[in-house]
Structure formats: C-alpha cells, structure tokens
Backbone:
C-alpha cells in the first residue's frame, strides 16, 4: 500500500517582516532619497511629448490598472510601480489613444514580474482589456518600454518610504498599522491624478502619512500639532516644507472629493432601491 504524503505548506504567500534595524537606519533612507531622483517623471509631458493623450485619458487607464490589481489581489507595490513605469514611458514616447491601454497592460505585467510572487499572465491582461490588444504585441512592447526606461526598473516609489517615516514617529503598533493602511490608500488615490506627478515619491509618502494621522485625529491625542508633524517630516525627508504642505492640501482635497462622490453614489443607489416600480414599467 502506497504511503500518503501530507503537505503542511501554507497556501498563502509568506512575506518578509519589516526589519526595525533597517527602518531606523538613516543610511537606508538617505539611499532611497538619492535613488528616487532616477525614477522621477516629467510632469509636463502632456504639453511637451503627448499630443493625442490627455490627463483624463491617463486617469481612466490608471483606474483600470487599479481595478485589475484589486481583483487579482496583487501586492501593494505592483500598482504604484506600474504607474511609475507608465508615466516615465509617456514622458519620452508619444503615444496614440489606440496604444495607451496596451502600454498600461505591459507596465502592469512588468511590475507584477518584479514585485509579485505569482505575476499576472499576458493572457489574463488581454482578457481584462476585452481583447482590445493582441497578445503577440506584448513581448515586443516589454522590450520597448524597458529600453525607453533604460532598464531602470527597480524604481523607488512612495510606498517604499512609509515604513521609514512611520518608525520615526512615536506610534503604537495598532496605530502604526492603521496609518500605514490609510496612507497606502491615499498613495493609490493620488497615483490616479496627474497633478501629483510634480512631486517626488518621498513628498507624496510624507503627505499621505500626514493626511492619515490628521484624519485619525492623532495630533489631538498625541500632543503633536500638525505644524510639528510637517516640520518633522520635512526634516526627515530633507524637503521644503512648502512643497509638503501644498501636496498635503491637494491630497486632502482629493480625499474629500472622493468621499463626496462615493457618498452621492450610495445615496443614489438607496433612492433607486427604495423607489417602487411603476405599473407602466411592468411588461406583461
């Protein structure tokens, strides 16, 4: 009788924990700040490079990229990295409308290969585009995009700064986890908006943490004023306070607008579900 084998491996993915020694080491943060300059985007590429595309088109395709990442439960780094690839590619190569979703799909594929244990497949991405792109074009575009990015693919994103900034602020563990989750959501939302391309990844991360702490009313409970918090973040990141405050204001406006839109949609759905069907609407 053949012996049965018992597999005790977990089906869920195992991820490395956040190492406090690395997060508290100022040299790691300094290297991130120096390296992020290699992966910045030309914030005027719609005026200088793209003649057919618009910021609204970019927002639509980036929201589509976010939906794909959410449905496939990709790691948080995949979406932010793929948008970085897309913006840097659009900064140097003029595209037509017909090629925008193809470029976005390839950027998602490349980012998932770099940051995802189980990367997205080309066939799956073609399906998500409703077969508007050809799978045979994807390998050629992978080489094209990588070449135009000069093969600098290990980009530093805003997500990479969250751990370092959070460990520099006196937070309880539960609060730190909640702030990280909120800040990551704000980074996702800001990635949809082209106006945030003018800021470095570190400034976006600092503004996201400030917005999260302010939203959780941490400043009122901790004795830290918002001004003290922004002073600490600007000193830690070595950036101008005005830039961080401007980014924070724009991020708060974006969050409020997003909440207003979501609330309006919920109210509209409640109205529809509560409205009785008219007799004339029934097809006998």
Residues:
């Amino acid at each position: 009788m053949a012996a049965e084998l018992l597999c005790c491996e977990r089906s869920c993915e195992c991820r490395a924990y956040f190492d406090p020694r690395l997060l508290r080491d100022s040299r790691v943060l300094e290297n991130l700040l120096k390296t992020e300059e290699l992966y910045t985007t030309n914030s005027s590429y719609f005026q200088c490079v793209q003649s057919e595309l618009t910021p609204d088109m970019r927002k639509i395709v980036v929201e589509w990229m976010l939906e794909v990442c959410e449905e496939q439960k990709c790691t948080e780094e995949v979406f932010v990295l793929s948008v970085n690839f897309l913006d840097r590619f659009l900064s140097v190569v003029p595209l037509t409308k017909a090629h925008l979703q193809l470029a976005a799909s390839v950027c998602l594929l490349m980012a998932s290969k770099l940051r995802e244990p189980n990367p997205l497949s080309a066939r799956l991405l073609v399906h998500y585009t409703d077969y508007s792109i050809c799978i045979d074009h994807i390998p050629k575009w992978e080489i094209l995009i990588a070449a135009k990015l000069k093969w600098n693919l290990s980009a530093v994103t805003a997500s990479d700064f969250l751990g370092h900034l959070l460990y520099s602020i006196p937070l309880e563990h539960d609060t730190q986890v909640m702030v990280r989750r909120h800040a990551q959501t704000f980074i996702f939302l800001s990635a949809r908006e082209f106006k945030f391309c003018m800021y470095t990844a570190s400034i976006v991360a600092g503004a996201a943490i400030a917005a999260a702490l302010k939203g959780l009313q941490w400043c009122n409970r901790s004795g830290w004023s918002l001004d003290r918090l922004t002073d600490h973040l600007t000193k830690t990141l070595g950036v101008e306070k005005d830039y961080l405050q401007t980014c924070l204001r724009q991020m708060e406006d974006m969050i409020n607008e997003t909440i207003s839109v979501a609330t309006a949609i919920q109210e509209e759905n409640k109205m529809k579900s509560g409205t009785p069907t008219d007799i004339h609407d029934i097809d006998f």
User: Anything to note?
Assistant: The mean pLDDT is 89.
